[in-house]
């Protein structure tokens, strides 16, 4: 095969008006290629450039990785995600494993995906805003694919006082919603708190305080 047969020349570059940031490369062979501007910059795909035929596959793989990256960015606009959530999402969208890992690695390098920061923020919000206990939070983070080490760090970051406040608020609310004699109501509240992931000792203490507060209100 001659040198000319191994190389194609970019004769014209046009902006793709239907997709932002993408361009159509027209070759002297009559074929065309649609790529993202980041790929153009990486491979210097400018008008007049000669491209080796065996380089086209590399360009296509790079563009596929960029597509995965852009789609992941859109997915992250709604809310933060874990590394595994992004991997699952892109895999479900049909991207090849190589493109998925390339996109995820890029997101991590840019600190747009950070499992440790995500886990700590999740633990804080679930503790303070949703009155969830650490066992419940641990299971949620496992389901999201967060590694054990990051989960352990997130659970360690939970303020015991904030967890206790959450348990007390949840216990007081549940107490008002239950019926029956005080002992039965207390058992229901304890079971409720255990399902929310609170340790047994904290659940019992919070339920007892809810009962005392209810008695004080009745006496008043």
TrEMBL record:
Domain RecX first three-helical span(s) in chain numbering: 68-107
GO-annotated biological processes: regulation of DNA repair
Chief localisation class: cytoplasm
Region feature Disordered, mapped onto this chain: 160-183
UniProt domain RecX second three-helical: residue ranges: 114-155
Residue span, RecX third three-helical domain: 162-206
Locations listed in the record: Cytoplasm
GO cellular component: cytoplasm
InterPro entries for the chain: RecX_HTH_1st, RecX_HTH_2nd, RecX_HTH_3rd, Regulatory_RecX, WH-like_DNA-bd_sf
Keywords, alphabetical: Cytoplasm
Chain's role: Modulates RecA activity.
HAMAP family: RecX (MF_01114)
Family: Belongs to the RecX family.
Name under which the protein is recorded: Regulatory protein RecX
Gene name for this UniProt entry: recX
